[in-house]
Structure to design on (354 residues):
């Protein structure tokens, strides 16, 4: 039976397909951008230059300085550049780090944003911004940070290295898994989440085998968009909380941490979320979704042990304390021993037992 629900849609304009980067100039003009600052990481400066060439006449300049976790110092330098150049809009090409910089600038200027994602992280659909100052990371939600338009061009993802494609895709899967049992889950989001998980589950191992498989890349980007819609519209629970705590405490890489933690966070919640488990069984064609997510990580060549990313063993207890210090909504109450087992299993990289 359908329970009463509230649904809030994502108000972004989405252009999806191969070669859609060709529509960047038209999309920028549609947003009223006449002088764009094009953002990227230093690694993707070449891609940003190629995009700037296509944005004929509406480019003020490039800022190829985006960095992981949106450091406030980088944002301030970009803001100075924006003002010096008289830029009136932002065009971000890259993964969550570049999108984060665009969002941080939009928060401060209310400038319109066009985003061209090149990973599966999903930040482009959300009104969420995480920023770091020194070692402190803060997260906020604000309608000004949500990009007005997004161009998903499959061709831009072909160069994403196979290993990063796998973990970035599982990062997206995590958004959809938690949407299935979020406090504000609803029937539409459950359909979107199930479809997104199925698309990534079937395409990521194919991308590992052949990173230039356009059909698999198309399926993965489609799945990533659906999972991003889930993150934008639904709340999150234990899994995202744990990744935030672990990533912040031990400087662990974002997508890899999601990949290692997800099977264990789901195994913990499974007894409390039978409808979500049924959907996951269908989406991944399995009896045991937690084990299937672990196997997906292995099949894309991910390292499933957080200890290999530098997390110390005594960090397990520290992370348990941090998780329990600021309680979080979760479908299953947070129990100290259970949470400890989840973190210990992700630390050592063991396969969850049914
Ligand atoms: P990333 O943006 O840091 O990219 C990782 C590396 O891959 C970078 O060096 C980048 O230049 C390179 N790269 C990206 N796409 C490429 C491509 N197609 N070809 C070659 N190289 C490419 O990684 P990410 O996982 O996309 O983003 C992680 C960040 O995003 C984290 O800071 C995370 O907190 C944030 N995030 C935010 C939200 C949100 O809603 N606010 C959602 C998801 C992730």
């Amino acid at each position: 039976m359908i329970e009463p629900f509230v649904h809030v849609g994502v108000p972004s304009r989405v252009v999806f397909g191969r070669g859609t980067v060709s529509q960047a100039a038209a999309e920028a003009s549609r947003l009223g951008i006449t002088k764009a600052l094009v953002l990227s990481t230093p690694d993707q400066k070449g891609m940003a230059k190629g995009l700037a060439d296509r944005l004929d006449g509406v480019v003020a300049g490039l800022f190829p300085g985006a960095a992981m976790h949106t450091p406030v110092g980088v944002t301030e330098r970009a803001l100075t550049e924006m003002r010096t150049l008289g830029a009136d809009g932002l065009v971000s090409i890259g993964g969550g780090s570049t999108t984060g910089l665009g969002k941080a600038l939009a928060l401060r200027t209310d400038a319109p944003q066009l985003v061209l994602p090149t990973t599966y992280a999903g930040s482009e659909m959300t009104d969420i911004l995480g920023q770091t100052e020194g070692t402190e990371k803060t997260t906020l939600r604000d309608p000004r940070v949500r990009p007005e338009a997004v161009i998903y061009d499959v061709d831009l993802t072909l160069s994403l290295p196979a290993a990063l494609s796998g973990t970035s895709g599982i990062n997206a899967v995590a958004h959809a898994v938690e949407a299935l049992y979020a406090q504000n889950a609803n029937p539409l989001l459950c359909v979107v989440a199930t479809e997104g998980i199925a698309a990534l589950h079937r395409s990521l191992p194919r991308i590992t085998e052949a990173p230039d498989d356009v059909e698999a890349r198309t399926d993965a980007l489609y799945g990533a968009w659906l999972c991003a819609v889930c993150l934008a519209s639904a709340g999150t629970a234990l899994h995202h909380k744990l990744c935030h705590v672990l990533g912040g405490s031990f400087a662990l890489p974002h997508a890899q941490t999601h990949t290692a933690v997800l099977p264990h966070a789901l195994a913990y919640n499974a007894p409390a979320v039978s409808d979500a488990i049924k959907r996951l069984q269908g989406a991944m064609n399995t009896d045991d979704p937690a084990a299937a997510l672990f196997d997906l990580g292995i099949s894309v060549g991910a390292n499933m042990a957080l200890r290999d990313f530098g997390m110390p063993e005594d960090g397990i207890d520290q992370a348990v304390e941090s998780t329990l210090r600021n309680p979080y909504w979760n479908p299953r109450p947070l129990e100290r021993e259970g949470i400890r087992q989840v973190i210990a299993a992700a630390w050592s990289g063991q396969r969850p037992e049914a």
About this structure: Strands lie at 13-17, 36-39, 59-63, 89-94, 113-117, 128-133, 136-141, 149-153. The two ends are 28 Å apart (CA to CA). The chain is about 50% helix and 10% strand.
